[in-house]
């Protein structure tokens, strides 16, 4: 690790945000380093968007410390403008301007010199496959095309840090894959990327991952380490009546989570719970079942982390 990579791009300690009686973010400690693709995984209402808005200076924390690219927030937010790119969930560009007009307007906002603007717009239109749409109104683009335009606009001024709030929630699977390839290209060039998502397959792509639940950080490591250290084991249950079997197993000690996958069930059970124990429980209740170990995935990690945190809360 180089000295530049060792210095945190984002550092928070005890970060919290309240809206009246609602605690949206609570006691959040983060350390994110240069060049990471760092993911926020969590359901709606878990605090992902609120945290991103505090990190770019749009929201004032209720308490805690925030430092982004060497600037303490919220006081130093003005100094971040030219070093940070923020992409919201909803398409926020001008729908009645063309693709090129949107990019040219943002170049003027960032005060790029005219010659640099021409070169930069040409490069972005080519890189994000927008050349054929340069004169089309942004409001007429498809979901994937809008996403590419939004990313081009976000990186127009070559920011050191990208904050992306569920950027792929409204696009097709191929567009999602293309988008993530673009993120890794930016990270390889030294840009730090913080991206929120509720897709497990996207979360698995991140170099590091934070799992948020009801405003709290409940896990933080590489996806591989989180899966390796899972405090439990996944099981696959082939059973004749999966809906009834699920209801039975959800009330069984040692079962941390149960989900129907097609005609089978997938269980997350405590490490001490053997497959034979689950199979015997089902057969005693009149089910025909076969239980086998299954491979760990991030959904198992999410279920275990959020359940452990909820059981620990008063």
From TrEMBL:
Signal peptide: none annotated. Gene3D superfamilies: P-loop containing nucleotide triphosphate hydrolases. CDD domains: ABC_DR_subfamily_A. The keyword NAD does not apply. It comes from the Bacteria. InterPro entries: AAA+_ATPase, ABC_transporter-like_ATP-bd, ABC_transporter-like_CS, P-loop_NTPase. Keywords: ATP-binding, Nucleotide-binding. SMART domains: AAA. SUPFAM superfamilies: P-loop containing nucleoside triphosphate hydrolases (SSF52540). GO terms for molecular function: ATP binding; ATP hydrolysis activity. This is ABC transporter, ATP-binding protein. It comes from Halomonas beimenensis.
